[in-house]
Specification:
The protein is α/β, with parallel strands linked by helices and 345 residues long. It contains 10 helices and 10 strands. It folds into 3 domains: 48 residues, no CATH class; 74 residues, no CATH class; 211 residues, Alpha/Beta hydrolase fold, catalytic domain (Rossmann fold).
């Protein structure tokens, strides 16, 4: 028989009486009394820590919580700034601009109407679509468009951002592929172009859109891409690093999670490298810019994995809009030579 002490039972025990065997009931009461104070003491210790180990655990938990919250807020702010671009681009005077450009319109599901610029070349000649990179406007590509038009090509300048007030504009390639497809379809409706032959040029985000479209569009007969990446998350990582927070704990991974959430309907899209085999027989020019080593590595890897025919070129400076005049002329001649050799007029 186990004897219970009155004061202890009165203050700390949960007494329960089972009719029948008094000895069993007494033993059950003692076991319950032994458990209750330990559990209550443990809870009280974590609510009001007095020992060093409980204080350490509470501190770690608090720091972890606030780190999680801070990382979430900072990542969300950075990603929002990355995907929100200034709207539209600078207009041009179509009546007086050399080359007699025209404005074309095309609709993109869930993105509204986009405006492109069309520079007519020789009648029934193929059309080359120029795709600007991240944060660039189509007006920055006007000299390249003129250089290709002078060779007899029809040229279309694609705009990846809409008109109006700033809002979430870019998906770093996901939606831009659909916009490029809509632009190509709009140009193909014209009666003064070759409806079955198109060329594509792009840089970073524009090159991702161009290469992705080429993998599923048989009318693309030649493609020149500079500083391409395999997945939009790779471009996101580079842009996050520009804010100087890419090396901080959690922020890199949290930023990608936020980006995937914003683009949940496209986040499962396969990387470009999985579909490169579809480009067998399509001439490809891969341009690596030495001043952008991260994208140069990705471009080189995609070049190695691509089927023939293909060419590889390394230039000292990428970003066509930021090149010096002589560098621009060399770049324009290189692009024009590639299309003249692989996309006859």
């Amino acid at each position: 028989m186990i004897t219970l002490r009155g004061p202890y039972v009165a203050e700390n025990c949960l007494m329960r009486h089972t009719p029948g065997d008094d000895a069993y009931s007494g033993e059950f009461a003692v076991l319950t009394c032994a458990a209750m104070p330990r559990r209550d003491a443990l809870i009280a210790e974590f609510r009001y820590p007095t020992r060093w180990y409980s204080k350490s655990i509470a501190t770690i938990l608090a720091l972890s919580f606030f780190t999680f919250v801070a990382a979430s807020i900072i990542s969300g702010f950075v990603v929002f700034n990355i995907v929100t671009l200034r709207s539209g681009s600078q207009p041009i005077d179509f009546a007086n601009f050399p080359g007699h450009p025209e404005q074309i319109s095309y609709s993109v599901a869930s993105a509204g109407t986009r405006q492109g610029w069309f520079f007519p070349g020789l009648k029934s000649a193929p059309t080359i679509l120029l795709c600007p990179g991240y944060g660039e406007g189509r007006e920055e590509l006007l000299p390249l468009a003129t250089a290709l038009q002078e060779q007899g090509y029809n040229v279309a300048l694609v705009q990846f951002t809409g008109e109006g007030p700033p809002r979430i504009e870019t998906t770093l390639g996901y939606r831009e592929v659909r916009e490029l497809r809509a632009a190509l379809s709009a140009v193909a409706q014209r009666t003064d172009v070759d409806k079955s032959r198109f060329g594509l040029w792009g840089t970073n985000m524009g090159s991702y859109a161009a290469l992705s479209l080429a993998e599923s569009e048989p009318r693309v007969r030649g493609i020149a891409i500079e500083s391409v990446y395999d997945r939009p998350q790779e471009m996101l990582r580079l842009l996050v690093n520009r804010y100087g927070i890419g090396s901080l704990p959690l922020l890199d991974g949290f930023s990608e999670k936020v980006f995937d959430w914003l683009n949940f309907s496209d986040a499962g899209a396969p990387p470009l490298s999985q579909r490169l085999s579809r480009l067998a027989g399509v001439p490809k020019l891969f341009i690596e810019a030495s001043d952008n080593p991260d994208l140069a590595k990705t471009t080189a890897r995609l070049f190695l994995e691509s089927p023939e025919p293909k060419e590889q070129v390394t230039i000292a400076r990428g970003n066509y809009a930021g090149m010096l005049d002589e560098e621009k002329r060399d770049y324009e001649n290189r692009i024009a030579s590639f299309f003249l050799a692989n996309l006859p007029r």
